[in-house]
Amino acid sequence: MSTSSIRPAVPLLVLIIAGCIIAAIGNGIRTSFGLFTLPMTTDLGLSREGWGMAMAIQNLAWGIAQPFAGNFADRVGTGRTIAAGAVVYAAGVILMAFSPTAGIMMVTGGIITGVGIAICSFSVVMAAFGRSVPVEKRSLIFGVATAASSFGQFAFAPISQGFINAFGWQTALIYLGMMLLLIIPLSFALRGKTEQTVGQADLPFMEALSKAWGYGSYRLLVIGFFVCGFHLAFINVHMPAYLVQCGLSPEVGSWTIAVIGLFNIVGSLLSGYLGGKLPKQMLLATIYFLRAVAIGLFMLFPVTELTAYTFAAAMGVLWLSTVPLTAGLVSLFFGARYMGMLYGIAFFSHQLGSFMGVWLGGVVFDLTGHYDLVWYLGIVLGLASAAIHIPINERSATSFAMKPA
């Protein structure tokens, strides 16, 4: 299998900068949705479960669409894919401002926004990086892209809260939707598609998926990634409301999300760097184990501003640090040719976890009046995912090599 990279249409540095800005905008706006939980449910009379279901559907729609978006980008072109996704994403966010019922919100904030996120997500950006960056540097560059996504979370949490405070939640959503259109001109730098590499078979979608799923290490990776989505979505959507329930202000909730994003810049860069030096599967096992420990300690102590920010910092280091390692393993298993599609399959599992985390958070709160059961489930799942990653083998899948004529 060839380990060479494909020369990008623009200088590599320009491609990386444009991709990182796209990742920052897209992820930053998405991760600010939790700040809208209290004002929207209060003004519209939505139940916490109804709002949670809309956000859960968003994550599920994102996960379902991601493999197809990745395959489309692999075959047609990354730039076109991302530009189209930005339009759909912006439309979904703006339409959320005019969604008075839970049912309509499930369509606009759920399906439309989720599909838009998938088409212009950092998963598609990383596919462009994967075809352009030498294999020995991919883990590091994936870490850089993930860190950029985290910076977006850090930047957009106070921006979104400021919009809500100054203009109300409806106008805030319109402004955020308009900001997504900035992705369109940036997508020009990522134009191009992934070509077949020497020594690698060119497989149809379903055959490539079947062969990939037959590789045991990939199955374990996909299953373990479910837990990452569960943790991230539950905390991102329900943490601000949980902190208010514990007596803290909405501003503390927004800054908690921002602190997670800030510290994840460090975590993502460190993860990308270490992924080129140490076994990626063992790093992933360590991350999931430490998440379980962090959640356990957070539940053990009284909730104050100090413990909230400390927990946010700890989870921030562990937040998206799984992404460069998971993407690096997918690229190692199957090569850059199938990066968009097969990382998209892994990400679908991640989004199934996101769906469960967001939905269960709303259901458990409505039934019990608190989130404790979901926090404890997060601990158990973290330990299980740590165990699942240990047997993964860090080597290429021979089933994707070109067979001799």
Question: What would you say this structure looks like, in words?
Answer:
With 405 residues, this protein is mainly α. Helices cover 77% and strands 0% of the residues. The protein has 17 helices and no strands. Helix 13 (280-300) runs antiparallel to helix 15. It is globular and about 55 Å long. The chain starts with 11 loop residues before the first helix and ends in a 16-residue tail after the last helix. The relative contact order is 0.17. The mean pLDDT is 85.
Topology:
Elements: H1 12-30, H2 37-44, H3 48-75, H4 78-96, H5 102-119, H6 122-132, H7 138-167, H8 169-180, H9 183-186, H10 205-213, H11 216-245, H12 250-275, H13 280-300, H14 305-318, H15 322-334, H16 339-368, H17 372-389
Helix pairs in contact: 1-6, 1-7, 3-4, 3-5, 3-6, 3-16, 4-5, 4-8, 6-7, 6-16, 7-8, 7-12, 7-15, 11-12, 11-15, 11-16, 11-17, 12-14, 12-15, 13-14, 13-15, 13-17, 15-16
Level of helix content?
over 70%
- The total strand number stands at 0
Distance between the termini: 16 Å
What is the molecular shape?
Answer: globular
CATH class: Mainly Alpha
What class would the helix/strand composition place it in?
Answer: mainly alpha
Residue fraction in strands: under 5%
- Count of discrete alpha- or pi-helical segments spanning 4 or more residues: 17
Query: Radius of gyration, rounded?
Result: 20 Å
What integer is the average pLDDT? 85
Using the coordinates shown, work out and report the CATH topology.
Growth Hormone, Chain: A
Q: Structurally, how many domains make up the residues? A: 1
Low-confidence region ranges: none
- Please describe the biggest sheet, giving its number of strands, its sense, and whether it closes into a barrel: none
Spell out the CATH superfamily. Answer: MFS general substrate transporter like domains
Task: Supply the CATH architecture.
Answer: Up-down Bundle
